[in-house]
């Protein structure tokens, strides 16, 4: 007996498609927004950018540092305090010392320049938390697997640098790729992350 109610059967003829899709059946399009959580149509970072623009107009400055940023600027507890050079040496990445020092310094100067703005502090804390979490989730677990250096660098690009560049959107604080790397070394220098 033939099945005449087959819902999977598709018949097409004389198809023309302009600016769209053609498929033999269903078209499923998945959209993935990395780091662009929407709150009333705006990402969390866009809301902070708007707040920063408003703060600049009102020339409101502060002298206190918000707790979240202070956490990242302070040395992590229960960690031996050693210099960035020794940390890179321990992680077999001493060949990155010059870049690490320069990018960390560049990021630190930009952070210092903007630390009198509470909103800028919130943005930096938000970004540092993202870098920290992404490093701990995607980079650190792979370090003990003895992958080539190039593989680890690809992971850093894939899970930290590229998503952070996308996340920055308008990039009102003008953070560039080397400064995103500088965030990694800033966190390393304060014992929040390590390469070994």
H-E order: EEHHHHHHH
**What spatial form do the alpha-carbon principal axes imply?**
flat
Return Rg in Å: 23 Å
By secondary-structure content and strand pairing, the structural class works out as: mainly alpha
Strand arrangement, major sheet:
1-2
- Secondary structure: number of strands: 2
Mean of residue pLDDT values: 80
Determine the N-to-C terminus distance. 67 Å
Region (Disordered): 1-24
Protein name: ABC-three component systems C-terminal domain-containing protein
Biased composition (Polar residues): 1-18
Domain ABC-three component systems C-terminal: 83-195
Helices and strands in order:
Blueprint: E1 38-39, E2 42-43, H1 44-58, H2 67-73, H3 84-90, H4 97-113, H5 118-143, H6 149-168, H7 177-189
Antiparallel strand pairs: 1-2
Helix pairs in contact: 1-5, 4-7, 5-6, 5-7
Organism: Salibacter halophilus
Protein name: ABC-three component systems C-terminal domain-containing protein
Domain ABC-three component systems C-terminal: 83-195
């Amino acid at each position: 007996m033939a099945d005449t109610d087959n819902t999977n059967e598709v018949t097409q003829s004389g198809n023309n498609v302009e600016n769209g899709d053609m498929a033999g059946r269903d078209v499923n399009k998945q959209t993935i927004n990395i780091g662009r959580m929407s709150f009333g149509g705006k990402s969390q970072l866009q809301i902070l950018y708007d707040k920063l623009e408003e703060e600049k107009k009102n020339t409101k400055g502060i002298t206190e540092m918000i707790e979240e940023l202070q956490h990242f600027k302070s040395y992590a507890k229960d960690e031996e305090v050693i210099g960035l050079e020794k940390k890179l040496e321990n992680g077999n990445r001493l060949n990155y010392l010059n870049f690490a020092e320069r990018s960390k310094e560049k990021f630190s100067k930009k952070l210092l320049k903007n630390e009198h703005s509470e909103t800028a502090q919130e943005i930096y804390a938000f970004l540092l938390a993202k870098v920290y979490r992404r490093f701990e989730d995607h980079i650190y677990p792979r370090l003990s697997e003895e992958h080539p250096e190039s593989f680890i660098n690809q992971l850093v690009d894939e899970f930290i640098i590229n998503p952070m560049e996308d996340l920055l959107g308008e990039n009102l604080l003008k953070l560039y790729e080397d400064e995103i790397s500088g965030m990694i070394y800033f966190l390393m220098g304060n014992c929040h992350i390590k390469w070994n």
